[in-house]
Amino acid sequence: MSSIDKLKQHHIAIEKIAEDMYSHLDAAALSKNATEVRTLMTSLGGKLLVHFSGENSQVYAPLMASEDATIKATAEKFHNGIDAVKAAVSAYTANWPTAASIEGKPAEFITETKKVFGILTDRMAKEDKELYSLLPKEEAQPQ
């Protein structure tokens, strides 16, 4: 499996966590028990750490070393934009550190969850469409 295939698999896994979380976004239910959704948040955080690390080494490093100014600029734009994604996820995690914090404000949690997953979904779609295709063919071969 190529490095890009692995990163795309990460996107699929992150989307699956989002689907699982969306199935739990009921304020009445969350006010009583948010343990499962908090566990999913932990899983999401782990997947994102692995994904961000893979992108740094397998996508940004080779693209930012490109002699093609357009490729380099696109890679830099995406690389610079990841900080806003990381900040949104970090704030989200900090705002909801425990199941009890979610249970205490379920409507706010639901709103913020939808916002963060909107950011992630948009970013992943752009990476799939605009970024990964810029890698040289040898970078996309199985490792």
Which descriptors would you attach to this protein?
mainly alpha; 143 residues; elongated; 6 helices
Looking at the overall shape, the CATH architecture is Up-down Bundle
Distance between the termini: 6 Å
CATH superfamily membership: nmb1532 protein domain like
Helix content: over 70%
**CATH class category name:** Mainly Alpha
Secondary-structure class: mainly alpha
Structure description:
This protein is mainly α. The chain is 80% helix and 0% strand. The chain is built from 6 helices and no strands. Helix 1 (3-22) runs antiparallel to helix 6. It starts with a helix and ends in a 12-residue tail after the last helix. The model is unreliable at 139-143 (pLDDT under 50).
SSE layout and pairing:
Blueprint lengths: L2 H20 L4 H6 L2 H30 L4 H27 L3 H6 L1 H26 L12
Offer a concise description of the structure.
With 143 residues, this protein is an all-alpha fold. It has helices at residues 3-22, 27-32, 35-64, 69-95, 99-104, 106-131.
